[in-house]
Prior knowledge:
Blueprint: H1 2-15, H2 17-30, H3 37-50
Amino acid sequence: MKVLRFLRWYVRELTGTAAYERYVRAHEGHGGTPMSRRRFERRRSDLREATPQSRCC
């Protein structure tokens, strides 16, 4: 059972599902309207491109 929980956590972190859910929970806690998943991912991608860190490619 622990292995399945770990795999589920790992896949969710890898795909970004967990990040979006954390974002939605944070906005619901403040009473705001969260962005759509698509817009959230686009913004995340834009921020990564605007602030490059050490990457190989």
